[in-house]
């Protein structure tokens, strides 16, 4: 993981979430909720 690029995280999460939503459409609300919570926490943590 020495060449880890943080810019790849969002597209990777979006790709995985998209595949899961296609396979299990009922998971959409949970995936969106978890994503928003994580982004919110990371956004707030950056300011503290």
TrEMBL record:
Keywords: Membrane, Transmembrane, Transmembrane helix. It holds the Pfam family DUF3096. It comes from the Bacteria. The chain crosses the membrane at residues 12-45. This is DUF3096 domain-containing protein. It comes from Methyloligella halotolerans.
């Amino acid at each position: 993981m020495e060449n880890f690029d943080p810019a790849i995280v969002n597209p990777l999460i979006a790709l995985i979430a998209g595949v899961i939503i296609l396979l299990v459409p009922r998971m959409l609300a949970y995936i969106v909720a978890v994503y928003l919570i994580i982004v919110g926490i990371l956004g707030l943590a950056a300011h503290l």
